[in-house]
């Protein structure tokens, strides 16, 4: 799986202007099962995505479709989950 951190490089008002298209993009990839979790950083300097295992080129293509590409940089880390608490055991198979 991948952990993707979004780090805003533009002012928050520019981020807000793209929020609904970004949410629509998130909804599309949650619906097809590619995204596992998403949320804002606190303080609000960006966000985080958990993404299921896939070819890295495919992930890069998905991230390039995000409207936030105009306001955020993406830091992608591949993670091989080997341990998880009971409620999250399914993460080991993603």
Automatic annotation (TrEMBL):
Protein name: YCII-related domain-containing protein
Pfam families: YCII
Organism of provenance: Candidatus Pantoea soli
Similarity comment: Belongs to the YciI family.
InterPro entries: Dimeric_a/b-barrel, YCII
Domain YCII-related, first and last residues per copy: 1-79
């Amino acid at each position: 799986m991948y952990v993707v951190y979004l780090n805003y490089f533009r002012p928050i008002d520019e981020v807000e202007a793209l929020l609904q298209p970004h949410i629509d993009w998130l909804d599309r990839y949650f619906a097809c099962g590619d995204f596992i979790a998403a949320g804002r950083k606190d303080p609000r300097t960006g966000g985080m995505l958990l993404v299921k295992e896939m070819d890295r080129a495919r992930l890069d293509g998905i991230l390039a479709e995000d409207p936030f590409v105009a306001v955020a940089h993406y830091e992608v880390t591949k993670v091989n989950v080997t341990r998880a608490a009971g409620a999250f055991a399914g993460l080991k198979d993603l």
